[in-house]
Amino acid sequence: MATVAVPKFHKNFINGEWVEARSGRSFENRNPADHSELIGIFPSSTEDDVNDAVDAAKAAYAKWRLVPAPKRAEILYRAAETLVKRKEDLARDMTMEMGKPLSETRGDVQEAIDMTYYMAGEGRRLFGQTVPSELPNKFAMSVRDPLGVVGMITPWNFPMAIPSWKIMPALICGNTVVIKPAEDTPLSTYNLVQILTEAGLPVGVVNVIYGMGPDAGAPLVAHDDVMAVSFTGSTDTGRLVNQACASSFKPCHLEMGGKNIILVMDDANLDLAVEGAVWGGFGTSGQRCTAASRVAVHKKVYREFLNRFAQRVRALKIGDGLDPETEIGPLVNETQLQTVMKYVEIGKNEGTRLVVGGHRAESGRLATGWFHEPTIFADVNPKMRIAQEEIFGPVVALLPFDSFNEALEIANHVNYGLSASIYTRDVNLAYRAMRDLETGIVYVNAPTIGAEIQLPFGGTKSTGNGHREAGTAAIDFYSEWKTLYIDYSDRLQRAQMDTTEHS
Ligand code: ADP
Q: What is the CATH number of the domain that holds 161?
């Protein structure tokens, strides 16, 4: 299926120019479905490159912050239109560098399109508050100020959607950007930034630094002129980012791991629940922070659910994401494959029942890719490691329960709190679940994945740090309130004190 003939040599994007890393070092971007295929060679950046990029973003900020937001929005509209036109090519590039099937990478690009249009619309809103003053002849309101240079660190599982979730709201608020994309998916960020540039984004407003996390990401987070950081990735790295931001009180948005659950009640539409568990558990080969890696099923329907679920999962077609028949693509890299294989061993040693899968998939053409069979463990105890730790692969733990309260206890008894779902036709249970599930996102009669860009996205506990991505919540992170009082009384008026005098 390989379509990339000539590897491309890429450069960092600093101050409107494509430039080599100062170190002259580079890294390879390879196709996870066939690792003999080289997609491109990207610069391995270090602190020097980060400094150049931040300087460029800081200089550009002086002008960009003064561009009226509706004018900033015009650039975003143009970019969105180009994204629409090039959607198919962008999706193909993404499948080749990341592995997920074309239907999913089209969805990823669509999310970037949706976010870009949405934030362009915000250019004519960016609502603040206008409120009555307690004093006569005085006007009171709040407006949103940009923060300055924002540093962004992104993961590989949504190579265009996640950069767009960060870049678009940051830009519409008047910030400038330095982004370091994941080392496994640099091409999709290149494509996105290239489109923004073609749409007329001024020089230095968005800068891209490629490279490894500790070499290129860490100096970006720590840079004194980076006024805020947005990070999506693992909880361990998120903790480092948080610590690096703490000493200078730098606002820091963290979007980290998940251990999401689908609850299937005994009155659920079982066919619907099975389809939801297949999509939620094995979409993107389980490499979503919202993946349903746990499915808890009421004992009354447990056996029936397990049979139908196992039958569906055994039939899933593993292969290259460019093949339209493929349902399960490869894992993104060898390390991720090894993590999955390690957790399969852990699951077996914990005494659970391996029902489907459990091995690397390496027959025929799969041998040159990082494929793993979709895997189901049944009769899992909620305390076991495979029910507690994020695996980020095609492994689902099935847990039986007796009552709604027990299901809630299982659902909430993890360190993460991103997404949860319940399948039931009982409206009372649905509302109790919405109230009592301790996650940032709850679905009813739908799997744990499928967030839309116009509402807040994020989670509780070790998933996040209280901020949210997407919707107007993103505007809240990428802007700072400025409160304005205009006194037109021509005399000294003292708030809270001059309350009885009126003129
Ligand atoms: P994953 O294990 O899913 O790749 P990571 O948290 O390691 O998740 O990576 C997410 C992003 O964080 C990537 O862009 C990676 O390069 C970056 N990263 C990794 N380590 C650091 C670090 N110490 N400081 C800043 N960014 C980092």
A: 3.40.605.10
Q: 312 exposed, middle or buried (CB, 10 Å; 0-12, 13-18, 19+)?
A: middle
What is the enclosing helix (H) or strand (E) of 39? strand 34-43
Which residues are registered as beta bridge partners of 339?
none
State the distance from the centre of ligand 1 to the C-alpha of 94, rounded, in angstroms: 19
Q: Are residues 336 and 473 in the same domain?
A: no
Shortest CA distance to 119 belongs to which of 73, 166, 65? 73
Q: Same domain for 252 and 265?
A: no
> Quick check: is 289 catalytic?
yes
Residue 162, token pair as written in the block:
């996640």
- Complete DSSP assignment for 67-136: S-HHHHHHHHHHHHHHHHHTHHHHHHHHHHHH---HHHHHHHHHHHHHHHHHHHHHTT-----EEE-SST
**Residues 393, 282 share a domain:** yes
Those residues with Cβ within 8 angstroms of residue 293's Cβ, 6 or more apart along the chain or in another chain: 258, 259, 260, 281, 286, 390, 391, 395, 396, 397
* Ligand 1 contacts CB of residue 153 (under 6 A): yes
3 within a domain of the structure (yes/no): no
The CATH number for 352's domain is 3.40.309.10
Q: Tell how far the Cα of 233 is from the centroid of ligand 1, in angstroms.
A: 6
Q: Residue 14, Cα to own-chain centre: how many angstroms?
A: 24
Which residues fall within 8 angstroms of residue 135, CB to CB, at 6 or more apart? 487, 489, 493, 495, 498
Interatomic CA distance for residues 43 and 55, integer angstroms: 19
Does residue 453 lie within any of the structural domains?
Answer: no
Separation of alpha carbons 144 and 6, rounded Å? 46
Give yes or no: residues 237 and 374 share one domain: no
The pLDDT assigned to 498 comes to 82
Tokens 């799969």 -> residue? 366
pLDDT per 10-residue tile (average), the chain, 503 residues = 62 96 95 95 97 98 98 98 98 96 97 98 97 97 98 97 98 98 97 97 98 98 98 96 96 96 98 97 94 97 98 97 96 96 96 96 94 97 96 97 98 97 98 98 96 96 96 97 98 86 52
Q: How far apart are the CA of 211 and the centre of ligand 1, in A?
A: 10
Q: Is the CB of 237 under 6 A from ligand 1?
A: yes
| 458 within domain boundaries | no
Q: Which domain holds residue 179?
A: 12-256+464-483
Would residue 406 show up in a list of annotated catalytic residues for this protein?
A: no
Q: Within this chain, do residues 204 and 317 fall inside the same structural domain, yes or no? A: no
Query: Quick check: is 208 in a domain?
Result: yes
Whether ligand 1 lies within 6 angstroms of the CB of 234 is answered as: yes
Closest ligand 1 atom to the C-alpha of 181?
14
pTM score > 0.90 for this model?
yes
| 30 and 168 fall within a common domain | yes
At how many degrees (to 10) do helices 270-282 and 299-314 cross? 50
**Catalytic residue (choose from 104, 255, 373, 390):** 255
Give the model confidence (pLDDT) of 267-276 as tens digits. Answer: 999 999 999 9
Question: What pLDDT sits at residue 47?
Answer: 98
